Amino acid sequence: MEYIDSISEKTGFFVSRKPFSLELGGELPETTIAYRTWGTLNRERNNVVLICHALTGSADADAWWDGMFGEAMGFDDTEDFIICSNVLGSCYGTTGPLSRNPLTGRRYGPDFPAVTIRDMVRLQRLLLDELGIRQVKLVVGASLGGMQVLEWGFMFPEMVRALMPMGVSGRHSAWCIAQSEAQRQAISADRDWNDGWYELDAPPARGLAAARMMAMCSYRSFDNFQERFGREKKDDATFQAESYLRYQGEKLVNRFDANTYITLTRAMDTHDVSRGRGDYKRVLESLAMPVEVLSITSDILYPKEEQEELAEHIPESRIEYLHESYGHDAFLIEVDKVSRLVKAFRDKITAKDSSAA
Question: Is 247 within 8 Å of 234 (Cβ atoms)?
């Protein structure tokens, strides 16, 4: 499948012909960034809201975060210029394992170099430079998106006015690393894996589906599975919980690439805002802009204690909670509540800017 066929026709593409150096070594000879925008950039160019997407997301934030966009909502295109770009290493238009390597003429595949969250943010910065944007009002995102949000604050503090990370920690835990590695091993154990050089019409579908099923067990909670499925069975005697996971696995196989999954989960494992910067708590204390942390109390992947640690040590921060049973994915499900929280924080930033003017 050519995954680029599934993205919006409104997607824009920025191509940089300059080599892009990577944090862990090596470089990409050229890069393409897929992105979407909503709203209008104001005369002062200071009404920019940047959305950072999660693992299998794309630049089409209005699709995967449906219910967040509209007047008087979290993302209001009558007030702000909203941007979402597809991350480096993905399969929805930005350079990744499915892209053609201009040096070899074939797809990168498993030869795609290791990337980090910081590489993703630097590539986003290239896009904003191309668009003539020098200031970002708010950076917001959850999970992998939340990692990018935090790195924006450390990498480009002079450019960012506020951050809103959701369902994320300041560094990937051993628990998260283990979850990701189990999923990667499921993919590589598929007989069609072929060391990553599989044909696109014969991908390691069973392995990728199994990886997604594992992930879904960590994206939801015990209570959510109990309440939703219990021990109920379908007409064919399959447990409802089994059927749900199989559906989610098949759904991902039809819209995502296995090498991409491995590339992005490995990038997530590198996440540590203190890497190369010093003591973890002191690094958090160095963030100087307003930060609102959103924690999901039923999240078993990124427990609320990790978000509370962020809020405790980041000076100008506060924490909000989603007290829902959905687990990690609550940020995608309880969109009305999330939208109200984003809007309230965005309004505070706007009011603060107005009073300082």
Answer: no
Q: How many angstroms separate the CA atoms of 271 and 125, rounded?
A: 18
Is-catalytic flag, 6? no
Question: Which portions of the chain are predicted below pLDDT 70?
Answer: 1-4, 354-357
Rounded to the nearest 10 degrees, how much is the dihedral formed by the CA atoms of 72, 78, 81, 82? Answer: 40
User: Greatest CA span in the chain, whole angstroms?
Assistant: 66
Q: Could you tell me the CA-to-CA distances from 35 to 8, 93, 114, 139, 188 in Å, in that order?
A: 10, 8, 22, 15, 30
Overall pTM > 0.85: yes
Amino acid at 12: G
Does the annotation count 53 as an active-site position? no
| Candidates 62, 299, 329, 339; catalytic one | 299
Catalytic residue (one of 58, 99, 143, 317)? 143
Q: Exactly one of 76, 180, 328, 329 is catalytic; which is it? A: 328
Catalytic residue flag (residue 143)? yes
| Average pLDDT score, the chain | 96
- Structural contact between residues 42 and 310, judged by C-beta atoms closer than 8 angstroms: no
Side-by-side strand order, sheet with 81-85: 12-16, 31-38, 81-85, 48-52, 138-142, 163-166, 291-296, 317-322
Q: What is the pLDDT of residues 24-45, one digit of tens each?
A: 999 999 999 999 999 999 999 9
